[in-house]
Specification:
Helices cover 70% and strands 0% of the residues. By secondary structure, the protein is mostly helical.
Length: 102
């Protein structure tokens, strides 16, 4: 990744890039989604998997990968890993290492 870019399509194909973007999208949109659908609240973990899946699919298709069932399934499987990593980013932002225990 070049120093002048924040994200590139290749960076979004890595667990670090995909999880960071997933973290930000979920953080900025989850409250809005809950307000738009007050009776059908989607658990944050499942929402993060859906966002991660879309991020991974977009990155795959933007880099020239063909759209077939293998690409979609692999992106879906990897979305769980990316969502878990994004959850850890969220946990570390709330409870930084060396911080005071709550």
């Amino acid at each position: 990744m070049k120093d002048t870019q924040l994200f590139s399509w290749e960076a979004l194909l890595t667990i670090g890039g995909a999880s960071l973007l997933t973290f930000y999208i979920v953080q900025y949109t989850k409250a809005l989604l809950d307000r738009m659908m007050p009776r059908r609240r989607i658990p944050t973990d499942l929402y993060a998997v859906a966002v991660a899946w879309l991020v991974l699919l977009a990155a795959q298709f933007a880099t020239g990968t063909t759209a077939d069932w293998r690409t979609c399934f692999l992106a879906f499987a990897n979305a769980f890993l990316v969502a878990a990593a994004a959850g850890q980013i969220q946990n570390k932002s709330l409870h930084p290492p060396g911080g005071k225990p709550t």
